[in-house]
Amino acid sequence: MNVVWSEQAQKSFEVLKKALCVEPILKSPDVSKPFFVQCDASMRAIGCVLLQESEDGVLFPCAYHSRKLAGAELRYPVIEKEALSIVNACQVFRSYLIGVRFVLLTDHKPLIAIKQAASKNSRVYRWSLSLEDLNFEVNYVPGYKNTIADYLSRPPQAVVESEK
């Protein structure tokens, strides 16, 4: 499927990108408060967001990250793409996560045991070993509640098309 990226789509993307990087959407992280990391994968990209809880109990974003999958990554099964999103998030946000306890949020239920290094999938098992020095718990969240990471893991045109 060929996607026609129009000038209007590019302008909309730039406006959205700018809106996601200013207060109150994006806040500076407070190292005295716990962190939450929300991760997701799609067929072509992975995305993650570093979150903290506000005084009124609402999670707000501190940092975003996403990237396209490349080469062999595009052929990974779903569990490996989702695990890659977790490993990538922990690498990208490592400076905030090392030495503190945090909560990792995923919409892929089989990965709630990634911390126990119990996967029969050799790639997921190796990746889980790379996370051993981090102190986190993994919580499952239904896909409809994993919205920020979900949007980050989708190409902009897919988000635009899904809202039509």
Helix content: 25-40%
- And the CATH topology? Nucleotidyltransferase, domain 5
Number of domains: 1
- Output the strand order for the largest sheet: 3-2-1-4-5
Mean pLDDT across the residues is 85
Terminal CA distance: 17 Å
Outline: globular
Order of helices and strands: HEEEHHEHEHH
The biggest beta sheet is recorded as: 5 strands, mixed
3D architecture notes:
- The protein is an alpha/beta fold.
- The chain has one domain: Nucleotidyltransferase, domain 5.
- It is about 35% helix and about 25% strand.
- The chain has six helices and five strands; from the N terminus they run αβββααβαβαα.
- The chain has helices at about 5-20, 80-90, 95, 120-130, 145-150, 155-160; strands at about 35-40, 45-55, 60-70, 100-105, 135-140.
- A five-stranded mixed sheet has the order 3-2-1-4-5.
- α2 (about 80-90) runs parallel beside α4.
- The radius of gyration is 16 Å and the shape is globular.
- About 30% of the residues are buried.
